[in-house]
UniProtKB/TrEMBL annotation:
Residues 38-180 form the DDH domain. Coiled coil: none annotated. The lineage of its organism: Bacteria, Candidatus Komeiliibacteriota. Pfam families: DHH. This is DDH domain-containing protein.
Length: 354
């Protein structure tokens, strides 16, 4: 049975009232659903929210995202479902004056979004990451709940509106299911609500399409990065730091895939995999299995709250990462290998020191 509790029905009523009062008139601005980090859960929840707006509220919404489509699974999803046509890459100044909605995130103070003089608070937030302090009020619709995926929350709203996907909209159901499946690590960290939402969605898309987007191809560059990380890893106790050296920005999501594999190594509780991008910018992915340590607190302390972030999965597992700028001063003129060694020592100090 769909999860359509009074709580969801109440939230749906408030969201409909919130939306129709602000954006249903012909001259009203079209709200923008923002994806801070492109991944299946963010894309799925954005697509689902736009579907809900259209079908239940008779209101249009645009979907915009920051950054590039670099992860191989994201590229497969965008290509197969032609999402480049329906979702637009933007910078913050382009959308800062619009009514903004955030899914799978709760803050615009994010290194992935970039800096802007326009300080616009999102008026709608649907997220599942712990630690957010936003509160629901008359001027905002805020729903942050402890489930495995933001796509689960959007699916519950769709169920609460008594909607069902037809063949024309099956891609939306597919995206929501992918969001739940991937953000819960193939349902291994899923809550009961995630399971129920995923099972309901399965009726509306072809299993072959779902499997194709899970078994996405990996580029030769990915395997080169894996080899470099294995050759350039340093271990201190149960903590491991590895680098892929200098990488193209389009390969940045390889760091997350590699970190997911390295954290499975016996005896390892914390993994940080990093790469040098654009001269002095270091991108990194972190994974944590130590339930006694908050990964988000650790990353904020070592790398800054505006440059890093993390979420806690079921069972205490932490998943995070960030982007920092390393100012080497005159050492920036050193050969690449020397700079990589200096940055490696810096990253090891940040991760290994107690």
């Amino acid at each position: 049975m769909p999860h359509t509790s009074l709580d969801v029905k109440t939230r749906l009523f408030k969201l409909k009232q919130f939306v129709t009062e602000r954006w249903s008139a012909p001259a009203s601005p079209v709200p923008c659903i923002l994806v801070a980090q492109v991944d299946p859960d963010a894309v799925g929840s954005a697509a689902g929210l736009r579907y809900l707006f259209k079908q239940a509220f008779d209101c249009a919404a645009n979907i915009c995202y920051f950054g590039s489509i670099s992860h191989p699974q994201n590229r497969a999803i965008f290509n197969k479902l032609d999402l480049y046509r329906t979702m637009r890459a933007v910078s913050m100044p382009e959308v800062g004056s619009l009514p903004l909605m955030l899914v799978d995130s709760s803050s615009l103070d994010d290194a992935r979004i970039g800096r802007s003089d326009q300080k616009t608070d999102p008026v709608v937030v649907i997220d599942h990451h712990r630690g957010a302090t936003l509160k629901d009020d008359e001027k905002h619709f805020i729903w942050i709940d402890d489930v495995g995926a933001a796509s689960t929350l959007v699916t519950e709203l769709i169920q609460g509106a008594d909607l069902a996907f037809n063949e024309e909209d099956s891609d939306v159901a597919l995206l929501l299911a992918l969001g739940i499946y991937t953000d819960t690590y193939r349902l291994t960290t899923a809550t009961e609500r995630d399971f129920k939402a995923f099972e309901w969605l399965r009726c509306f898309f072809k299993r072959d399409d779902f499997n194709e987007l899970l078994n996405y191809p990996l580029s030769p560059a990915y395997f080169r990065n894996v080899q470099t990380a294995l050759n350039r890893q340093v271990l201190s106790g149960s903590r491991l730091v590895a680098t892929v050296g200098r990488i193209d920005p389009d390969e940045g999501d390889d760091l997350a895939i590699i970190a997911d594999e390295l954290i499975r190594r016996t005896g390892i509780s914390l993994v940080v995999v990093w790469g040098l991008i654009d001269g002095n910018k270091v991108r990194f992915s972190a994974r944590n299995m130590d339930i006694s340590m908050s990964l988000v607190g650790f990353l904020h302390e070592r790398f800054g709250s505006g440059s890093s972030g993390a979420k806690l999965l079921e069972g205490g597992r932490g998943v995070g990462g960030g982007l920092i700028t390393v100012d080497l001063g005159p050492l920036q003129e050193l050969p690449l290998e020397r700079r990589l060694n200096i940055m490696g020592e810096l990253m090891q100090d940040k991760v290994f020191r107690e």
